[in-house]
């Protein structure tokens, strides 16, 4: 007798039910996820089910059941009772220049939270938090669960990769979603993200759902739909969950690329850095402090985050986290010192090329997606999971939105090794900047909307 017959579930029947628009029961979903974990469901059957879900969607109850079963397919982290209400994290749907996690985790730790941040690697045009941190010599993103607990006790935050024991069903399903073009399914995105966050044993979670030219979702309404789905499911699982809808057209900050973004994150932790990066860090962190009861209001939470960025408390936590995750003490100390030349420790690119403005005017727009696609071709990103990347490749914006420029003035510096920056890539980059009249530029904050816990 096969495993399928032993379980009493007929997988083709489950596929047919969903294909025809039916609703799967909790027992059906449990059988599906257990079949994924055990390997008793065939790859073709799972692919068919994923496509049926992509086409027909899932009711809220189905999505909650799927997320919870995926979460329980592996280990769920447990924390000391004394940490009740303190364990928090954030998730971003990905963007260009998104280095928010690097200053946010230590800033939250400096405010008394525990942050077991389990992050991912970059794929396609989006950068990955783990890739950024691995540009720092010695930093290890692979930590066993016991070491994670130890770091949280000693430091208060860590940023690590997904362990083998956490949500194994998601690894199988995500790989097949990529192969079957079902990555953009709302219930499957929700299940994948929240099963991993649920396995972290969180008390509160904030979701940074981005929209715009350089985001997964191009318009506010689509982003709001995903955010609402995840907020509903997260709260149904007992995690106090809220969301921020943020604009993702121009890159966040002035630096794009793994090593360069580490430099900019360090600047933010030293109380400077670009305003839009600081806005996102304080908005997301302040929201978490309010949701976890450590601030009386969102505004008070934002003030607390801003204070630890300004007074050096967040920087001290970052230095401690670097050392706890394998960076030599003298390197961590130097990177976090006031006047550090970061490239004493971080590998610079071999070549730099500046691009100049082709006309006088005001910088109206910078297309982050175009920058990311060019950097990807220069080696900064990967097309398939597991591919190596060049941490040193990146772009440095020399102008800001709304700034007046003159023809011939540099607006961008590209850092690269090999392949070279050829004429086509140069032309693509020049097309990324829009220079117009002053009255055609309208400034917008990064954060467009907050979605409150239900």
Properties at a glance:
454 residues; alpha/beta; four-stranded mixed beta sheet; four-stranded antiparallel beta sheet; 18 helices; disordered N terminus
Task: Provide structural commentary.
This protein is α/β, with parallel strands linked by helices and 454 residues long. It has 18 helices and 13 strands. The strands form four sheets. It has a four-stranded mixed β-sheet, with helices on both faces. Helix 5 packs across helix 11. The radius of gyration is 22 Å and the shape is globular. It starts with a helix and ends with a strand. The N terminus is likely disordered.
Low-pLDDT stretches: 1-6
| Number of helical stretches of at least 4 residues | 18
Structural class of the helices, strands and pairings?
Answer: alpha/beta
| Number of extended strands | 13
Radius of gyration: 22 Å
N/C terminus separation:
46 Å
Largest sheet: 4 strands, mixed
Task: Trace the largest sheet across and list its strands.
Answer: 1-4-5-13
Mean pLDDT: 94
Q: State which percent range the strand residues make up.
A: 5-15%
Helix content range of the residues, please? 40-55%
């Amino acid at each position: 007798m096969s495993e399928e017959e032993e379980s009493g579930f007929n997988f083709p029947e489950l596929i047919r039910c969903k294909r025809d628009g039916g609703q799967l029961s909790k027992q059906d979903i449990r059988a599906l996820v257990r079949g994924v974990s055990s390997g008793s469901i065939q790859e073709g059957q799972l692919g068919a089910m994923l496509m049926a879900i992509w086409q027909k969607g899932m009711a809220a109850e189905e999505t909650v059941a799927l997320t919870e079963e995926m979460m329980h397919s592996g280990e769920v982290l447990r924390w000391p009772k004394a940490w009740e209400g303190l364990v928090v994290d954030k998730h971003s749907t990905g963007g260009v220049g998104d280095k928010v996690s690097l200053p946010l985790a230590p800033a939250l730790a400096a405010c008394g939270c525990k942050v077991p941040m389990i992050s991912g690697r970059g794929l396609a045009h989006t950068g990955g938090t783990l890739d950024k941190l691995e540009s720092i010599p010695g930093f290890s993103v692979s930590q066993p669960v016991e070491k994670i607990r130890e770091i949280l006790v000693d430091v208060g935050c860590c940023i690590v990769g997904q362990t083998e024991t956490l949500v194994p069903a998601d690894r199988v399903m995500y790989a097949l979603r990529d192969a079957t073009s079902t990555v953009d399914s709302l219930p499957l995105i929700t299940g994948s993200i929240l099963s991993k966050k649920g396995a972290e044993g969180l008390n509160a979670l904030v979701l940074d759902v981005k929209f715009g030219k350089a985001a997964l979702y191009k318009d506010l309404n689509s982003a709001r739909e995903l955010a609402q789905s995840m907020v509903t499911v997260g709260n149904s699982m007992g995690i106090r969950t809220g969301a921020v809808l943020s604009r993702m057209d121009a890159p966040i900050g002035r630096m794009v690329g793994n090593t360069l973004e580490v430099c900019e994150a360090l600047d933010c932790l030293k109380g400077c850095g670009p305003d839009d990066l600081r806005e996102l860090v304080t908005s997301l962190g302040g929201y978490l402090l309010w949701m976890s009861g450590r601030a009386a209001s969102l505004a008070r939470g934002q003030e607390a985050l801003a204070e630890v960025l300004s007074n050096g408390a967040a920087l001290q936590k970052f230095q401690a986290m670097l050392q706890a995750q394998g960076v030599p003490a003298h390197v961590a100390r130097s990177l976090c010192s006031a006047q550090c030349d970061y490239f004493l420790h971080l590998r610079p690119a071999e070549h730099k090329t500046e691009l100049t403005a082709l006309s006088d005017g005001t910088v109206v727009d910078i297309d982050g997606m175009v920058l990311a696609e060019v950097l990807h071709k220069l080696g900064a990103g990967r097309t398939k999971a597991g591919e190596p990347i060049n941490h040193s490749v990146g772009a440095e914006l020399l102008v800001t939105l709304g700034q007046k420029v003159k023809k011939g003035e540099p607006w961008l510096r590209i850092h690269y090794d090999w392949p070279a920056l050829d004429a086509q890539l140069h032309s693509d980059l020049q097309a990324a900047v829009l220079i117009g009249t002053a009255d055609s530029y309208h400034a917008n904050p990064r954060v467009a909307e907050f979605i409150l816990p239900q």
